[in-house]
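batch_manifest entry 22 of 60
target: DUF742 domain-containing protein
source organism: Streptomyces tirandamycinicus
requested by: lab member K.T.
priority: normal
notes from requester: please return tokens only, no post-processing; we will run our own comparison against the previous entry in this batch. if the run fails, retry once and flag.
--- input ---
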Amino acid sequence: MDGPWLDDAAGRLIRPYSVIGGRTRPTAALDLLSLVMATGTAPQGVLGPEHALALGLCDGPTSVAEIAAHLRLPAVVTKVLLSDLVDCGAVTARAPRFQESPTDRSLLEAVLDGLRRRL
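--- output ---
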């Protein structure tokens, strides 16, 4: 494990919600598929080490889900961290773009066929 709030033997040293001051709602509209990307602008104000880690993962368009996985934090905690970064201008966020139909029927049928073969 790595990062300022992790210890190899003990694991996470503080509760995830302590990182965001107990807040449970992001100020920016983010979902798991939202893509965030660093703007190159230095964040205004003092941000915590978890914010810096999240910002470091935003070099290219990266989904909220991927950032949460890298940070090993719950999605809602990650959304609050990222919305803080959006609010201070350090990252931009956009909703994912789907084609007319967000699901590909042939892909879903192939997955279903594969699952049936395993049973």
